[in-house]
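Final report, results section. Input specification for complex C-07:
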Amino acid sequence: MNLHALKKLVVGSPLATAQARHERLSKTAALAVFSSDALSSVAYATEEILLILVLAGSAALYLSIPIGVAIAILIAVVVSSYRQTILAYPQGGGSYIVTKDNLGTLPGLISAGALLIDYVLTVAVSMAAGVAALTSAVPALFDYRVAIGVGFVAAITLANLRGLRESGKLFALPTYLFVGAAGILILYGLVRWALAWDVAAQATRPFTPAAQDLTIFLILRAFASGCAALTGVEAVSDGIPAFKPPEARNARIVLGWLGVILVSLFMGITFLARHYHLTPMVEETIVSQLARQIFGESLFYFFIQGATMLILVLAANTAFADFPRLSFFLARDGFLPRQFGSRGDRLVFSNGILILGGTAALLLVIFGGSTHGLIPLYAVGVFLSFTLSQASMVRRWLARHEPGWRWRWWVNAVGATTTGAVVLVITATKFTHGAWVVVLLIPLLVVMFMAIHRHYADVAGQLSLDGYEGPPPLEHTVLVLVGDIHRGVIHALQYARTLAPSVKGVYVELDPDKTRRLEEKWIKWGMGAPLVVLSSPYRSLLQPFLEYLNHLLALGDNHMVTIVIPEFVPKHWWQHLLHNQTALLIKGALLFRKNVVVTDVPYHLH
Amino acid sequence: MNLHALKKLVVGSPLATAQARHERLSKTAALAVFSSDALSSVAYATEEILLILVLAGSAALYLSIPIGVAIAILIAVVVSSYRQTILAYPQGGGSYIVTKDNLGTLPGLISAGALLIDYVLTVAVSMAAGVAALTSAVPALFDYRVAIGVGFVAAITLANLRGLRESGKLFALPTYLFVGAAGILILYGLVRWALAWDVAAQATRPFTPAAQDLTIFLILRAFASGCAALTGVEAVSDGIPAFKPPEARNARIVLGWLGVILVSLFMGITFLARHYHLTPMVEETIVSQLARQIFGESLFYFFIQGATMLILVLAANTAFADFPRLSFFLARDGFLPRQFGSRGDRLVFSNGILILGGTAALLLVIFGGSTHGLIPLYAVGVFLSFTLSQASMVRRWLARHEPGWRWRWWVNAVGATTTGAVVLVITATKFTHGAWVVVLLIPLLVVMFMAIHRHYADVAGQLSLDGYEGPPPLEHTVLVLVGDIHRGVIHALQYARTLAPSVKGVYVELDPDKTRRLEEKWIKWGMGAPLVVLSSPYRSLLQPFLEYLNHLLALGDNHMVTIVIPEFVPKHWWQHLLHNQTALLIKGALLFRKNVVVTDVPYHLH
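Structure output:
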């Protein structure tokens, strides 16, 4: 079949179940795999803070430093808190599982809903920021940013459908390239600052007048936007089974490294952006402005932009592993359609991948490929799942009293309280800017999860064999629809007679003259079966037949009617257009009718 | 069903076959019904002549008078020629039937193809011209002309689907209003000319410089454009059975009247347009310019524009009777799909009406609602069918020697020769302006007609019972697809056992552990039927099953396999999304497979 060949070309040949394998990662490889999402957010977090502050004019931009410090502290709190989770869940502690375990199903589902939304936003935001890194360096591409973003999403969706795994080799190079490039940028920038080389340049920066007052609310909003820097921090604790043994210990070390690198890069960029008095611009990112300022338009500038773009694309790719996996867990527990629970030809959860790619591409189009437009929707879900996950740990330590539980309880309690407060800040300050969508969507998703669960439970109950005493005896009538008498009809009649000894032909009369001729032929070819003739004053084939059928079905609840429809199959598909689609019409009208079975009997023409 | 209710609301309740009725028309009513198409063309024919002449500059416009005279002579020839056809075909002499009768099938099909194209163009051109009459009077609507035109086509399509008949009452008023309005315009204009009242106004007309040389070719092209005035002249001879008796005599009289009125209106407008030195303008029609010149922007001016618009819309409406009728004849003879041969709920040929409306609307969009753009495609088909129809009559008189055949032979011979020459002129002068489309399309349609005919003949031969000795004996295997064991599967198994004594369950194994549990349940619930377990290394449900099926089918050519698929039917349609669509998948894969019957057995959930 052609469709099959096309799918094979695009997605590749099927893989056998036995080919599923697991790769264990060293600490350096694991850092690369699990940190790309978190580290890549430094490419836009500083800019999002400045974008809000600049509303109060250039003079307010100095506040980026204290806000940056607050976010750095928040990172430290969250990292410490997750290091406790790793100890408790060495098999992998995704927020859905941890929360469902400790706080119950409903909080677990809230966490799952928040995460699903978040994975979609991770793809959209990372792609938008990745394209922004590209168009900052090559401004001619700016007008095509939506198309480029959608193209990237399509490419990564395809790669994942083919079964791109979270391979250490694939991730190590871009992640370390970015860490190296950003590190050099920051270090060299600090040197120039220490030696006061760029004093003249600062004076030339444009002055932006204030559009709003500098209120506490605005400062909190800037902080809320900067919280995007924390997205992806939880990835290490989700992926513990992929570490080389001792898994939990290695994961804790890597999470520590991640925290240190993240804080360093984020604070470095925030400090230098302030030092150079950088102001956010529509067509160029802050990182690009900074790199251009420090290195000029040299080869190294383009290298930095390229590395930034690459890590952002990889960050999107991690969501392509996380979203289908969470969907699988949800489907396994009956909260999402079963289709999310099965692996495709290439051993990946194709349905989840397709939905993630499609939704993210749609968001890119809706928001015109702009990172800033998407940011207000972002961190809500992340921090909600942080909070639920930490709160679960608080409950767990209290319930189990494992070694060191008092101290760990404190760490997680601080984590839960802090991230909970951040959820409130983000929701309040960004509500009217788009966060309301997420606040509305999470309960809707939870209601959907529960409705699906109820449906599956209900179906299972109705189909259950517990206490079932077998079906009542069945009566069976077989009808053959006759429009004319030809070889195809005789073939169908013969087939029908193998199904049941007593078969009736049914003919809907449109023209009485034709009926007489047909009845004569039926005497010769009808194999002794009676022919029922139904009259049709309105030339409808369907109506008289349905009335007759209703009459038969009224005979009893265990009376089944099989309708045999002779259908001749022409050689070429287009020839179907040349024949009345009576069979299709009748099948459509009787679809899912109780106690009715519609059977086409094909007769092949050559 | 909802769709059914919607259709009823839009199209109306079904009508019984016995409600079909025929209305006989008096001569005045018949003139109104059958002349609207022909008469309405005077609204644009003069303008189309001027539009070509003006290419050679204002100085060339005087040629409209001799060209007009040539066209008037042509009208006289064609009318005389068709008066002979009426005598020979008192049951109605449409070009397809007349040509097929006398010249054979292929010329008949050429004529039919030309006519079908022509009916579509009649709708498009008349609507475009009708909208131009409206926007000339209300220039604010000019920018919406495409939308208005498509809206008119949609409205008239709907009216015809509901069963608007060619009612004398409906047509009489607008046709006579137009004849009256145009008559007063011309008479009063001639009075003003005779009394030389408008000499000053003429001098103010703008002078247009020549863009092309005034060649014979250009003059012939102007003549070809003006031939649009003849479209619709054949309508009377198609509709003879609708006249009161004596039908043929009344029809000949009406056709004579039509010729006289048509020539008068066309020559009157052409003469006055020349007298006032009118020049074609994009935003105002010649008739509107003329009416404005003679009556000023008075109420009568708007009356003329309204009457013009109305008759153009009616002209389009006649094509809605002709196109489906011709399609019906073609379908009856096996040259178009059968679907064109059946009447819909409202006793009209719905398929033909829909295709005509859709294609005409599409043309309006493609040509931006411009009459001028469509004109080069127009008259080719009309004159081709004129020529074939007259040539048929020439052949007929020669063959039959009916009373007066010598004289009639001469009339038709002159008609055929003249219209044949016009076909050549139109094709040659307008070929590169769009006529090529029609020249290409007519043979394509003929090839399609013949391919359809061949297909039907082929099918009829294969299905024929002549020499058929009945079907060979049939062997029958019934398989029940088992995915799990629940009440729905047991219901399907019970059903399958009423079909054949030996039934097999078939299970595709994805997980060996599940197989063992299933086999245990099967012992209890399987009703003694054997269970075939197929292994699936690539997790595909379909592939192993298809291989097994191929194995069974290979047993012999008269071995049929019925596949029973248990399908449970949830209460709400959206719940279908929550279940694997295995049944659909398998039906799709086996669609029209030889010797395979797929049977869904629904199990209803509440």
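The domain at 23-452 of chain A is CATH 1.20.1740.10 (Amino acid/polyamine transporter I). Chain A has two domains: 23-452, 475-604. This concludes the modelling results for the funded period.
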